């Protein structure tokens, strides 16, 4: 299983329309990707490493897929559609990381 993380860096002047992202953009992504998308999580940054430090990211979205091939087969053909919607909710360039999900048990 893999996780695709889209991270929107926080910086002075950054804008991010949380309601649009949550109510329009993410549902469009989920509908377009269909059954290939196994999970979707949306996180809003609250703070950084120390108290009163701003969060390094305004928002993060995590999408899970069975495999890298499944992600590429469904996301790739729709990447332009997804990118065209970005100016509707942010002026920030999102960073993308694709990770393998590794199960770990710590004494449980």
UniProtKB/TrEMBL annotation:
Identification of the protein by name: EthD family reductase
InterPro entries attached to this UniProt entry: Dimeric_a/b-barrel, EthD_dom
Domain EthD span(s) in chain numbering: 18-90
Record-linked SUPFAM superfamilies: Dimeric alpha+beta barrel
Domain of life per record: Bacteria
Source organism of this protein record: Sediminicola luteus
Signal sequence range: none
Pfam families: EthD (PF07110)
Lineage, broadest ranks: Bacteria, Pseudomonadati, Bacteroidota, Flavobacteriia, Flavobacteriales
PANTHER family in the record: BLR8190 PROTEIN (PTHR40260:SF2)
């Amino acid at each position: 299983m893999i996780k695709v993380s889209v991270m929107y860096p926080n910086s002075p002047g950054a804008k991010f329309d949380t309601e649009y992202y949550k109510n329009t953009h993410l549902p469009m992504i989920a509908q377009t990707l269909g059954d290939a998308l196994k999970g979707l999580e949306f996180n809003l940054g609250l703070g950084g490493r120390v108290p009163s430090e701003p969060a390094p990211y305004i928002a993060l979205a995590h999408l899970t897929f069975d495999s890298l091939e499944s992600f590429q087969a469904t996301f790739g053909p729709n990447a332009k559609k997804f990118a065209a919607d970005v100016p509707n909710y942010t002026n920030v360039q999102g960073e993308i990381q694709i990770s393998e999900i590794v199960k770990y048990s710590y004494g449980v």
